[in-house]
């Protein structure tokens, strides 16, 4: 992975950590947070999850991006309300999402 991609990934993860912290502290409402961020949170977490766990293992520190993981879990829990099928985002949808994210 290039340094530029790593920097962008860290920026995304840190942003969602902040959102997760705001949600946990009840600064943001769950319904509002879901409406604004869920599609991004869910896909980005599922793309970056392995990297997060690898960093946690290498640093022996499970607190790395824990608010992002909290946010992901809250989004998945809330979406059950809409009877969405459980599980991960299909790979073809992830690829479409990434293409759209890369557009200038």
Overview features:
104 residues; mainly alpha; 4 helices; disordered N terminus
Largest sheet: none
Q: How many domains make up the 3D coordinates?
A: 1
Estimate the mean pLDDT confidence: 87
* Count, helices: 4
Uncertain residue segments: 1-5
Order of helices and strands: HHHH
β-sheet strand percentage:
under 5%
Separation, N- and C-terminal Cα atoms: 21 Å
CA radius of gyration: 14 Å
Outline: globular
Kindly report the oligomeric state of this protein: single chain
The helix/strand class is mainly alpha
Number of strands: 0
Helix fraction?
A: over 70%
How does this model look, in words?
- It is a single chain.
- The protein is mostly helical.
- The protein has one domain (3-102).
- Helix content is 75%, strand content 0%.
- The protein is built from four helices and no strands.
- Helix 1 packs across helix 2 and helix 1 (3-24) packs across helix 3 (66-79).
What is the gist of this entry?
The protein has 104 residues and is mainly α.
Ordered list of secondary-structure elements with their pairings:
Layout lengths: L2 H22 L5 H30 L6 H14 L11 H12 L2
Helix pairs in contact: 1-2, 1-3, 2-3
């Amino acid at each position: 992975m290039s340094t530029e991609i790593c920097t962008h990934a860290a920026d995304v993860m840190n942003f969602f950590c902040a959102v997760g912290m705001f949600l946990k502290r009840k600064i943001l409402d769950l319904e509002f947070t879901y409406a604004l961020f869920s599609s991004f949170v869910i896909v980005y977490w599922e793309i970056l999850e392995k990297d997060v766990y690898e960093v946690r293992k290498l640093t022996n520190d499970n607190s790395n991006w824990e608010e992002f993981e909290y946010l992901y879990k809250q989004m998945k829990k809330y979406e059950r309300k809409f009877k969405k099928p459980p599980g991960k985002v299909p790979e073809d949808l992830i690829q479409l999402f990434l293409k759209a994210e890369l557009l200038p």
